[in-house]
Design a protein that fits this description.
- By secondary structure, the chain is an alpha/beta fold.
- It has one domain: 3-Layer(aba) Sandwich (Rossmann fold), CATH 3.40.50.300.
- The chain contains six helices and five strands.
- The protein has a five-stranded parallel β-sheet, with helices on both faces.
- Helix 1 packs across helix 6.
- The protein starts with a strand and ends in a 9-residue tail after the last helix.
């Protein structure tokens, strides 16, 4: 079993994907919730280090400034990506997270897509089109979990 990080811009579907993986019985950690981040918005490094020192077979999601410090501890870093219009439509219609509802936040999402996503892409081992059905995305991540973080073919 592997340790997999799922990352990407707000609205790309990280939480939805983790929900599907949890439904399938996989251990998941959505670092947007339950105190995984510090007040400055970065991961709580001792807590994350402890998680990643434990048993493999976990899927973690998040997008924070210090996540790169942990890349070597993951067997796979999955970037979910989608065009700006898809992201903005998703954040406008979601009910589980208020981020992305204001014009300022929507502007941030656009800026982050251009400035941050290229950085995430450089650190990713796999990039998946987040417009694909969540079941297909979950199938791919399950494959990474069981194959030690390696895909048998390009997705």
């Amino acid at each position: 079993m592997a340790r997999v990080l799922v990352t990407g811009m707000s609205g790309v579907g990280k939480s939805t994907l983790l929900g599907e993986l949890a439904r399938r019985g996989h251990p998941v950690v959505d670092t947007d919730y339950d105190g995984w981040t510090t007040p400055d918005g970065t991961w709580d490094e001792p807590r994350m280090a402890a998680l990643l020192a434990g048993p493999a077979g976990v899927v973690v999601s998040g997008t924070v400034a210090n996540q790169g410090r942990f890349y070597r501890r993951f067997d796979a870093v999955v970037l979910l990506s989608a065009p700006l219009g898809v992201l903005l439509d998703r954040v406008a219609s979601r009910s589980n997270n208020p981020y992305g509802k204001t014009a300022e936040q929507r502007g941030e999402i656009e800026r982050y897509l251009h400035e941050v996503e290229p950085l995430l892409r450089r650190g990713a081992t796999v990039e998946l089109d987040a417009r694909r059905p969540v079941g297909e995305l979950a199938d791919t991540v399950e494959g990474l979990l069981t194959a030690g973080g390696k895909l048998s073919r390009r997705r």
